[in-house]
Amino acid sequence: MENIIPRWEWRTFRETFGESDDRFAALEPGGVQESDELYLLSPSTDENVKIRDLLMDIKTLEQVNPDGLEQWKPVMKGAFPLPAAEVKSVFNALGVAPPPLERADYTLEQFVTELVEPGQRLRVVKVHKRRTRYKIDGCMSEVTEVVADGRKIRTVAIESEDPAHVIATVRKFRLDRFQNVSYPRGLKQLVGMKS
Prior knowledge:
This protein is an alpha+beta fold. It contains five helices and ten strands. A hairpin with a 2-residue loop joins strand 9 (139-148) and strand 10. The longest helix has 10 residues, at 84-93. It is globular. The chain starts with 6 loop residues before the first strand and ends with a helix.
């Protein structure tokens, strides 16, 4: 994960985005992608920890700027079976002490059934995403339909390595009237999990 430049992100969750929806509808999408993911949510931290395509994906929040943009840095993309040392890193990112590790590595099923579910300290949330992607003024953007443990919502995200581009695009699309909410916090609100 070396030479990765953290990106600045702005995201919000709502059923509809009013005139912002109309502005996205007027654009030509860059593509549509569907995925099924597992998010690991912790009561003690809001780090972004998910499993997609048999990869453990962790992003950590580096900083928040005066405009409220969040800078997220990818710190792990580990393939299952996941070595015990990387399993420890996952629990550390989630702010929870790992249980005793009795294997050299863990399949996805072993990771969830033997390590995550028994302690009930973490919540595993099944998430289906249908992302419509856009490129706007140098920013990657998406409008996503999310189903998390059967509950539906939509999310809009604007991100770039340049925070000035992100906030300009957020304002251009009149999204600054909504609160910036990270994926982990948005999912916690959706499924009724307290931080």
